[in-house]
Amino acid sequence: MGNRLDGTRRRIGICAATLALAVMMPFAAQARSDCRADTVLLRGDWGTVRFNVEIADDPQEQQRGLMGRTSMPVSSGMLFVYPGPRRSSFWMRNTLIPLDMLFIDATGVVRHIHHNAIPLDETAIFGGDNVLAVLEINGGLANRLGINEGTQARHPAFARFGAAWPCETP
């Protein structure tokens, strides 16, 4: 009976090690690939969150933005990236879902948040001067997660300006 019990323990140990490796692999992969064009990571004293993003980095994409969409997955967003820091203003023309807009400076620090922009409202939403990027996420999400001014963003767009939370280098 001792040999059978030892064999069972070995199989359980191998299964546990395999499960641990399977659980840890996504974290290792994230550490290597956390600076991707289609991902924005945010961190603050509230914690860390990851958004899968579409990039709007040319005038046509920026003008269209999220117009006409009736929904967006919770962990998704759109990142507007400018060639350099500039004065930024948005509106909600033809945008059907409420949005939080995070106005981010060249170092990747959130400087202003406009919460719950009203669908279809054409009133200008001023984001500030020296904005390099704007992250649009579902309305109300910034408050629910605790995202605030001073939150740091990690994305390749901030690398050339001395990012506050730089991308990992292999």
Explain the overall architecture.
The chain is of the alpha+beta class. It has two domains: 1-32; 36-161, Jelly Rolls. The protein is built from three helices and seven strands. It has helices at residues 2-32, 59-64, 141-145; strands at 39-44, 47-56, 76-90, 99-104, 110-117, 125-138, 152-154. The chain has a seven-stranded mixed beta sheet. The longest helix has 31 residues, at 2-32. It is globular and about 40 Å long. The N and C termini lie far apart (50 Å).
Can you give the helix content as a percent range? 10-25%
Give the distance, in angstroms, between the N- and C-terminal Cα atoms: 50 Å
CATH-assigned homologous superfamily of the largest domain: Protein of unknown function DUF192
Output the helix-strand order.
Answer: HEEHEEEEHE
DSSP helical segment count: 3
CATH topology of the largest domain: Jelly Rolls
CATH structural architecture of the largest domain: Sandwich
> Which stretches are poorly predicted, pLDDT < 50 over at least 5 residues?
8-32
Tell me, rounded to a whole number, the average pLDDT.
86
CATH class label of the largest domain: Mainly Beta
Largest sheet: 7 strands, mixed
Write down the Rg. Answer: 21 Å
- Beta content: 35-45%
Shape: globular
Q: Would you report the number of β strands?
A: 7
Strand order of the largest sheet: 5-4-6-3-2-1-7
Structural class by secondary-structure content: alpha+beta
Please, how many domains? 2
